[in-house]
Design a protein that fits this description.
Layout: H1 4-7, E1 11-19, H2 26-34, H3 49-54, H4 89-105, E2 117-123, H5 129-151, H6 157-169, H7 176-179, H8 186-195, E3 201-204, H9 210-223, E4 229-236, H10 241-249, E5 274-282, H11 283-288, E6 295-301, H12 316-330, E7 339-341, H13 348-362, E8 372-375, H14 378-381, H15 388-402, E9 404-405, E10 424-426, E11 435-436, E12 443-446
Parallel strand pairs: 2-3, 2-4, 6-12, 7-8, 8-10
Antiparallel strand pairs: 1-5, 1-6, 4-5, 9-11
């Protein structure tokens, strides 16, 4: 039986890659953060936001969108071009980013044996482009034609066939070539196939915690010596308007079109596109092999909220429990922490709950000034749901790597949060100059399992 120390072996992040709004790669992502770039904007014309706005189904078209950064050359990966359109587009961008992460880690070439290399990705199971296309071809078209035949019985069979063809031609293809791309777990299966990975591969959906739970599962693979190298992350590369309809009904979206976590006047979050992957290795192996090490993950904590106040309402007790478990698992004293990358959605109740949970763990402020920087990358790229956690993890890893406290877009801290009573302080928009980190040497990964906005 393994000792607690063996089962909690530190895990090194030795490679990373990502694509987020206005950030085609890792370097640009970090530059945008330290330069306070607000990458939130309007969706592409193909989203047809006006009809959703006019009908009241969404209350804002704003979000963090990839736009022209959503590009993929299938020939580069030996994929037939005719098998791409009509399938799940997230799968292809996930392949490219996984490849880039391995390249960054120095383990892409055929000289490395990937027999014990696996990949786990967080990805949502709500409606995506490929699924929507399949439903339109095989359900909506039939229903439309039945309605036309019923309301216009004078239409001949030839005319109905012609109308059906006109409607079909407006849709992406739906055939055997793209069928595999409609199976959710083919996302990681395709990556394992193209990159010759022979370890575990699967996706998981835990709402906003998806990508961090994927990292946690990958850490377990390494700590139990079932794998020697693991890729983990989250993908939310194509965001259909229908998802914003759901979040509008839940009252979670910002009508003013900004994400300002912990800020006075914040009225909600915005949804975003993006994806990121990290390459993980046992720290002892990474040091022995001379790998580049961005950061070290020493602990992970998970918690559910229990019965709580409501199905989707966050619980301060549940969040505090996850944080406490992370520090217990890591053996790190919270008083040594210099930076907290928060969930920070910008939804007032969520922000209040998070600050309350952090305050219960870190205690009261000692002295006039806070000593734990608080930030959220959502202020710059919005909420990428299953990829939200990996965006924060990559940001924090880069902060550790460069020894810089990254800023957060926050015009004025919300006085209702009473942050001044905690050790926390905000690095707001007015603090564009980067601050050299005094104590920023440990990364403790905190994961909360329940769905949170």
């Amino acid at each position: 039986m393994k000792s607690k120390r063996e089962s909690s072996e530190p895990i090194a992040i030795i490679g990373m890659a990502c694509v987020f709004p206005e950030a085609p790669d890792l370097k640009t992502f970090w530059q945008n953060i330290i330069q306070c770039v607000d990458a939130v904007g309007e969706p592409q014309a193909a989203w047809e936001a006006e009809r959703y706005l006019e009908s009241g189904r969404i209350n804002t078209p704003y979000g963090g969108y990839l736009k022209d950064l959503f590009c993929f050359d299938p020939r580069e990966f030996g994929i037939m071009p005719n098998s791409v359109d009509g399938g799940e587009p997230d799968q292809f961008l996930a392949l490219r980013v996984a490849r880039d992460a391995l390249l960054d880690a120095g383990y892409l070439d055929d000289g490395y044996d990937h027999t014990n290399t696996g990949i786990i990705l967080g990805h949502s199971t709500y409606l995506h482009r490929g699924q929507g296309n399949h439903v339109q071809h095989h359900i909506v078209l039939d229903q439309t034609m039945e309605i036309l035949a019923a309301v216009s019985p004078s239409l001949s069979d030839d005319k109905l066939t012609q109308i059906r063809k006109l409607l079909t031609d407006k849709l992406p293809q739906s055939n055997a070539d793209i069928a595999a791309g409609l199976v959710p777990n083919v996302m990681t299966g395709r990556i394992a196939n193209r990159l010759n990975l022979k370890g575990p591969n699967y996706i998981l959906d835990a709402a906003c915690s998806s990508s961090l739970l994927a990292v946690g599962a990958a850490m377990d693979e390494l700590r139990n010596h079932r794998s020697n190298l693991m890729l983990a992350g989250g993908v939310n590369a194509s965001l259909p308007a229908e998802v914003s309809v759901i979040f509008t009904q839940l009252g979670a979206l910002s009508e003013r079109g900004k994400v300002r976590p912990f800020s006075k006047g914040s009225d909600g979050t915005l949804l975003g596109e993006g994806l990121g992957t990290v390459v993980l290795k046992r720290l002892s192996d990474a040091e022995a092999d001379g790998d580049k090490i961005y950061a070290v993950i020493r602990g992970i904590g998970q918690a559910s909220d229990g019965r709580g106040h409501g199905l989707l309402a966050p619980s301060s007790e549940g969040e505090a429990l996850a944080i406490q478990r992370a520090y217990e698992d890591s053996g790190v004293d919270p008083s040594t922490i210099g930076l907290i990358e928060a969930h920070g959605t910008g939804i007032p109740l969520g922000d209040q709950t998070e600050v309350s949970a952090l305050g219960s763990v870190f205690g009261e402020r000692q002295g006039q000034l806070g000593n734990v920087a608080l930030g959220s990358v959502k202020s710059m790229i919005s909420h990428c749901i299953p990829a939200a956690g990996i965006a924060g993890l990559i940001k924090t890893s880069l902060a550790l790597h460069h020894k810089v406290l990254p800023p957060t877009l926050c015009d004025e801290v919300n006085p209702d949060l009473a942050i001044e009573k905690t050790p926390l302080y905000g690095l707001g928009l007015h603090q564009k100059m980067c601050h050299v980190v005094r104590v920023l040497t440990r990364l403790v990964l905190v994961v909360s399992i329940p769905m949170r906005f």
